[in-house]
């Protein structure tokens, strides 16, 4: 199946509209069974240089193409993605491990983003505004930044790439994109789709390779004017610091420590469904995954019982097989990190109610059993640090106010959720939860692409992916004044008393 679907055994960079061989490569393996899928290039600084030069050249022309015409390419990209949805979804499950149903959802997110951003080609609104002086016109306009660098993680290898590249392209920029080395196939496929859709050469360039080499070269490159990064906090902080020194614009979307709050009046069956989906979907490897449940003491016992009963039905295995709910962990390092946190949780005194071990299988993939800790305290490491696996910790509280406080007591601020039937609590919660995304009577995952995606505090640096807000990352604002009085009018000085 692999050779058939990929049509190649060795991926190539996509630079200036051409497929470019790279001598040095490494194997990409399927996390569900350890099988080698393909070889991915390990490019170096010289490949980044080629890509940037191609992008500089292409961007000059692309910026002059009227935005509605630029948008037509995205529209075609969306149509091709729609045609290829099943193939893309299966390849995504093969390289990333998430179950097929979720892979289809991720590809759909990319399709939605294509049509949404194609619509922006006829908007890209600026503002007209009155001028202070007679016979003078004033307006603001979005203009492209130039060459933008996109660095993406393995956990949403196609959706996040579309959140970043589509707004960048419709706004008239050219892109150099470094996908995660673990999951290069979606990047290869998306580059082929751009090619088929007729995007001019050099407007998107894909350079495969390690973050420490390719990613860092992009961050340091003086002609890349924006870096849009999604990934871990450690990497993001270093990138921000390097970009800061160069006064380079940088957008960061990083980790989360997201909580579901379950109040005493909640529909508990619904809460269980929400927790299961957001804690164990994608094996907990989502930035928005629920990894804390903050539960009112009156319903704690019942919630524990119902969660445990429901967790029994979570079938683990290869995400391409029917009925599987929890797929593999991305790699051995990810698995080891989860195992470490299980020990930390036990040592800290939390009670392990379920899971806590690798899934016993002869399969060489990396699997971990859905895990439930209870009696966790808000300041424990398992309740503060991102685990990135199917591990959730219950924290008991006595009031709504305490629940909000506990939710906000982490350094991250990505997503939160509350289950309650009390409308007053709903409105207070959406005001007081210090996260970029808030759900009411739903789990912590499930973003829609036309709303801003991102978080407060340590999750980011104030920018947002997707939504119309994504355009702020990839455009500069230009203020334009047209004086048609025929004389020199000085602002703030020549105003009539
Ligand atoms: P990561 O290790 O930081 O890697 C992310 C990307 O950065 C990869 O492409 C990586 O390249 C690259 N990179 C690594 N070192 C670099 C460097 N020195 N300079 C430039 N680029 C570098 O993160 P990950 O483990 O792939 O992703 C998981 C993290 O992403 C989690 O913390 C998760 O919460 C976060 N995430 C956040 C969001 C959000 O929107 N808030 C969404 C999804 C994921 P390699 O391919 O070489 O590793």
From TrEMBL:
Keywords attached to this entry: NAD, Oxidoreductase
InterPro entries with a match to the protein in the record: Ald_DH/histidinol_DH, Ald_DH_C, Ald_DH_CS_CYS, Ald_DH_CS_GLU, Ald_DH_N, Aldehyde_DH_dom, ALDH7A1-like
Positions of the catalytic residues: 253
NAD recorded as keyword: yes
Leading EC class: oxidoreductase
Molecular function (Gene Ontology), one example: aldehyde dehydrogenase (NAD+) activity
A matching Pfam family: Aldedh
EC number: 1.2.1.3
The keyword Oxidoreductase is annotated on this UniProt entry: yes
Domain Aldehyde dehydrogenase: start-end pairs: 19-480
Record note on quaternary structure: Homotetramer.
Family named by the database record: Belongs to the aldehyde dehydrogenase family.
Protein known as: aldehyde dehydrogenase (NAD(+))
Native source organism of the sequence: Oceanobacillus iheyensis (strain DSM 14371 / CIP 107618 / JCM 11309 / KCTC 3954 / HTE831)
Lineage, highest ranks first: Bacteria, Bacillati, Bacillota, Bacilli, Bacillales
